[in-house]
Design a protein that fits this description.
Low-confidence stretches: none
Largest sheet: 8 strands, antiparallel
Helix content: under 10%
Distance between the termini: 50 Å
Shape: elongated
Mean pLDDT: 85
Structural class: mainly beta
Order of helices and strands: EEHEEEEHEEEEEEEHHE
Strand content: 35-45%
Length: 296
Amino acid sequence: QYSYQHNNYPTVSTTAPDYVSAYNTTAPDAFPNPAGLPPYLPVYGFTYYATPFGQGNNQEDTTNQQITGNAQKIWGEHTLKFGFNYFHAHAFIGNLSRTLNFGLTPTQNLESPANTGDGMATFLLGLPTGATRLLGPGLITLNGNMYGAYAQDNWKLSRKLTIGYGIRYDFRGNLTSPNATLGSFNMQTGGWWLDGPVEIPGAVFQGPNTHKGIYNPSYDLFSPHASLAYVLRPGTVIRSGFGIYYDLYAVWEQTTQGPRVTWPISQFQETPNLNSVFPTVGIDQPFVGLPNSVYN
């Protein structure tokens, strides 16, 4: 049996009044946009206020293909079942996040700041107190394969008692990128695991120095199971069972979330506290003095 599933549901949510764009918060210097994507505003945060506007940009284009085969053989009191499956995943995913926050500090009473200040007033003055952005694309193409096989037997020991037992084995390869180098911090050496070359001039860390996908695949994903069914009386059956199961797909995708937003692909950047003493940073340049590229 062959199955094919393609999902493409990018989501761009926005409530962006014109007066917000007048502050030039979509300027490339403040919030650079990944190539090929339209400009979008950061999510605005106001202390003690609900977020009234901002934009989110999530890209998810996935293609899953699966081949499965199953067979059954009745042999005396035994019902034997065997099967296999092959699963291929292709995904173009990313979550582009940027924020611009307005706290109380710039509008507090300097002599007695307790219980003073207003986040909306701070915004109207154009004095952000913090911001975050993603340097680099934040979008990545991933491919991966999974394989599985199982065998099981339902053995009818008597008219009333049936036992079942079996085992399944799965192998989940790494999700790898055909056009990007995945990186992850090496806690043992203080360096970086890199599964491909780093095309950044002067970069201290170079690759590849590990296999594609970085993480070591698991070779011990055995899933035994056993069950029992006993007919106590007509219309009443007692059942019990035990099994080990693995959620392979969800864990698969989660393991890539760190490398996806990690150097050398991209990197989250957060400002220190802004305008905490004097009004020195305007709304159009919250990242002044910080690198504008993941290559810096």
